[in-house]
Amino acid sequence: MAVITSGVDTGRKVRWTIIDVVVVVYALVPVLWILSLSFKTKATLGDGNFIPREWSLQNYADIFTTNEFLLALVNSIGIALIATAIAVVLGTMAAYAIARLEFPGKSALVGFSLLVAMFPQVSLVSPLFDIERSLNLFDTWPGLILPYITFALPLAIYTLSAFFREIPWELEKAAKMDGATPGQAFRRVIAPLAAPGVFTTAILVFIFCWNDFLFAISLTSTTRSRTVPAALQFFTGASQFESPTGQICAAAVVITIPIVLFVLFFQRRIVAGLTSGAVKG
Amino acid sequence: MAEIVLDKVTKRYPDGALAVNEVNIEIADGEFIILVGPSGCGKSTTLNMIAGLEDITEGELRIGGQRVNERAPKDRDIAMVFQSYALYPHMTVRENMAFPLRLAKVDNATVEKKVTEAAKILDLTQHLDRKPSNLSGGQRQRVAMGRAIVRSPKAFLMDEPLSNLDAKLRGQMRTSVSRLQKQLGTTTVYVTHDQTEAMTLGDRVVVMRGGVVQQIGAPQFLYDHPANLFVAGFIGSPSMNFMPATLENGALSTPLGQVALGDRVRSAAEKANAPREVILGVRPEHFEDAAVLDEAAKARGSVFTAQVDVLESMGSEKYAYFTVDGEQASSAELAELAADSGSADVPSSGSQLVTRLSAASGATEGGSVQVWFDTEKVQLFDPSDGRNLTYSAE
């Protein structure tokens, strides 16, 4: 059997390897390019070499010596983490209700959350700007956290309710029969089983908040709450004739790192097939 | 441990559908009772109402003398085994079994002791640290039982606990469930659609149809004295043969020929005001090959000649199948039974007759054979409402 199919297998392998390589190269070349630029000196920035001829860490040193970038980094991490935590907690509860309970207005709720997700964010920027200024939320952490939660919630609810639907309802009944209150059944049986879904959602929401540029640039004005994607635009060179390309590239590399760490950290918790063995087939 | 009383318990869904209608059952302390019936008969709903997983619309449920209608499942002190087992996949076998005790805030030493005990009874000791996903079906089933027995509840509720196992394992588990229940002496309500489980496991059987209790009684009593057509057709495998018949002057004309009824049957039918058109029911074992009987025995019954369609030899006995010409017996009960067993989908002309003959019978497939049946043991049913015209409670 193996001998007969090995020819076919080799062909398949080669084909898939080529496709994989093309996809990876296509996705990674711009990233590597930015990485390369961030290590170049100012003089060699425009020389067109993919591998820097002169390696330098000057760009990294520059961005970390200015307060601007460090503060933006703190803002980014703080705002994204808080927004993610709140959105995931609210989303978990809402998704559970949508997946498990029958209540009046359920389809309206689902419809509205879809509507929020479909709404063009750019059309909300000016009203939000006015509202936040009159509520003194402009250029504050809550001023960004609130819109992030709003736009992350539909995503969270959709992802999580799919996970909740996967969990056999009988487990909850069993927990009730075993003497659990509804709260205990949720905490000790349902929530642990929904954990992969919660972590997946957390990753998606975190990336959404971390990468947002539109709200970050429109609803902030100082380093008090400006996040990194917005702060990058305010980088200036040493003189007006100098472009801060190298520094922007270095900053772009630095802000990718938390995302990579975040994904790696939570990925270990996404164990596929966690519910297997709960019920037969 | 406690007795469970269902007093006119009714379940009506918000859309008006009546799932369970005024069910009265008194379950004695330590009794093993079986709820049986085709799918959709309300047996699982009844069980869920006892469990507290579904609300009771009307009527009263008492456990140990106390009304528990309004109590949450956790306050009823009863344990349940689910058809799907519903084991917690993120916990080991030990944690699964300890879960009810942990929720009850039992101290660690007692938890350990009880789990070890239960594991020993169920032969799970070497699997205690494994996750449910690494267990076989039978082992998972035992873990589910273990989770129920650890906290010594007032009653066990079992919802088709064996239906996910393969046939051989189901047979083994059936005896072990029976043994376990005897050993623990805990009141048990067991739901099944399998009439073999119903016959072999319970002290008493409750047959349900369309949310209504048809008959309650010991398995053998239900078999010998079914209250109506539905119970007669549901209990027993292979099931009772039914055919249309006309009752005239104490004699019965049937597709099997004219039959002179025995005294018991005739007097019972008279007492019950039997209509002219009836349905005749004969169990397969009340047939016999006329050739193996002596004259005296033959005289107690009626003999007909027919051609054997199919012959199944079991070694200890033979099952001979005949086709009987003429109309099939028809009634709402029989239609429902046929739909439940799927036999309504099998095309056939005339009705089929299943007979159990002794191994000594010389019947051959395709050959003609003289078949005798015991006219004292036949049952007559009213086609309009299905009641057993020959029913006697003795």
TrEMBL record, chain A:
Residues 73-266 form the ABC transmembrane type-1 domain. Keywords: Cell membrane, Membrane, Sugar transport, Transmembrane, Transmembrane helix, Transport. It is found in: Cell membrane. One of its GO terms (cellular component) is plasma membrane. Gene3D superfamilies: MetI-like. The keyword Chloroplast does not apply. The chain crosses the membrane at residues 16-35, 69-96, 108-129, 141-164, 185-208, 245-266. The keyword Transport applies. It is a multi-pass membrane protein. GO terms for biological process: transmembrane transport. Its main location: membrane. CDD domains: TM_PBP2. Signal peptide: none annotated. Pfam families: BPD_transp_1. Belongs to the binding-protein-dependent transport system permease family. This is ABC sugar transporter. The lineage of its organism: Bacteria, Bacillati, Actinomycetota, Actinomycetes, Pseudonocardiales.
Automatic annotation (TrEMBL), chain B:
SMART domains: AAA. Coiled coil: none annotated. Transmembrane segments: none annotated. The keyword Hydrolase applies. It is an enzyme of class 3 (hydrolase). One of its GO terms (molecular function) is ABC-type transporter activity. Keywords: ATP-binding, Cell membrane, Hydrolase, Membrane, Nucleotide-binding, Translocase, Transport. InterPro entries: AAA+_ATPase (IPR003593), ABC_transporter-like_ATP-bd (IPR003439), ABC_transporter-like_CS (IPR017871), ABC_transpr_MalK-like (IPR015855), ABC_transpr_MalK/UgpC-like (IPR047641), Mo/tungstate-bd_C_term_dom (IPR008995), NA-bd_OB-fold (IPR012340), OB_MalK-like (IPR040582). GO terms for biological process: carbohydrate transport. CDD domains: ABC_MalK_N. Pfam families: ABC_tran (PF00005), OB_MalK (PF17912). Residues 4-235 form the ABC transporter domain. It comes from the Bacteria. The keyword Hydrolase applies. One of its GO terms (cellular component) is ATP-binding cassette (ABC) transporter complex, substrate-binding subunit-containing. Its EC number is 3.6.3.-. This is Maltodextrin import ATP-binding protein MsmX. It comes from Kutzneria albida DSM 43870.
